Amino acid sequence: MSPRTDTSGTPDIRDVDLKLEVVVIPVSDVDRAKEFYGRLGWRLDKTPPGIVQFTPQGSDCSVQFGANLTSAAPGSAKAYLIVSDVEAARKALVAAGVEASEVFHIGPEGPVDGLDPERRSYRSRATFSDPDGNNWLLQEITTRLPGRVAAAATSFTSASDLASALRRAAAAHGEHEKRTGQTDPNWPDWYAEYMVSEQSGAELPK
Predict the structure, then answer these.
(1) What is the number of other CB atoms lying within 10 angstroms of the CB of residue 197?
(2) pTM for this predicted structure
(3) CA distances (Å), 128 to each of 28, 34, 118, 151, in order?
(4) Dihedral pair phi/psi, residue 7, rounded to 5°
(5) Which DSSP helix (H) or strand (E) runs through 127?
(6) Exposed (0-12), middle (13-18) or buried (19+): which is 124, by Cβ within 10 Å?
(7) Are 33 and 67 in contact (CB under 8 A)?
(8) How many helices (H) and strands (E) does the chain have?
(9) What is the pLDDT of residues 20-78, one digit of tens each?
(10) Where on the phi/psi map is residue 181: left (φ > 0), alpha (ψ -120 to 50), or beta?
(11) Alpha-carbon distances of 196 from 54, 109, 122, rounded to whole Å
(12) Where are the alpha helices (DSSP H) in the chain?
């Protein structure tokens, strides 16, 4: 399909792919920051001289830092890291020697200690900071709000995310079999529908 154009022949901005791939974070000590982000297990990418780039596991977006990449004050950045299990992610950080907050959730009046009681997406969180104070917020998301991910675009970028999704589908399928009172031989299709619906925010199968 040809891009939409206006009367001057200019392409419509809605037809131009704009992929967010790199975010620059401000640091005061490049070597210290490089050691810290390497400890997180993030992939160190090849870059031109003067630029350090790391990519978190399962992410299509990378972070860059260097001596002259930004005029922002070191420690002024804040970003979200989306995880399927915030407790497991926090434990992995602590095991890697990173100081992380306890898990908390967002209640009607603000942050409350512990996981969201209903384990709802977007509610359960934890935080940690790099040596400069740049803040990272871990946010647990298993079911996206509708319209954020097209069903055809659903994917799992790591084995751990896929395993977590399979476990949730297995638990939900167990409840499905209890409701129907019979074994479901078509469980692979049910699992697939559940996992795609969960990720895209569509109605989950019953």
Answers:
(1) 18
(2) 0.72
(3) 18, 16, 24, 32
(4) -65, -20
(5) strand 124-129
(6) buried
(7) no
(8) 4, 9
(9) 999 999 999 999 999 999 999 999 999 999 999 999 998 989 999 999 899 999 999 99
(10) left
(11) 29, 33, 18
(12) 30-39, 86-95, 159-180, 187-200
**Identity (one letter) of the amino acid at 152?**
A
- DSSP code of 115? S
d(CA 69, CA 43): 20
d(CA 6, CA 180): 55
- Spell out a b/e string for 93-105, using b for 16 or more CB atoms within 10 Å of the CB, else e: beeeebebeebbb
Phi, psi of 107 (to 5 degrees): -100, 180
Specify whether the CB–CB gap between 28 and 74 falls below 8 A.
yes
The CA-atom distances, in angstroms, between 144 and each of 36, 101, 188, 199 are 30, 24, 22, 6
Q: In angstroms, rounded to a whole number, what is the distance separating the alpha carbons of residues 117 and 11?
A: 48
| 170 neighbors 113 (Cβ within 8 angstroms) | no
- DSSP track, 142-184: SSPPTTSS-GGG----SHHHHHHHHHHHHHHHHHHHHHHTS--
Q: What is the pLDDT of residues 114-168, one digit of tens each?
A: 999 999 999 999 999 999 999 999 999 988 887 766 766 777 777 877 888 888 8
Give yes or no for a contact between 122 and 146, defined as CB atoms under 8 angstroms apart: no
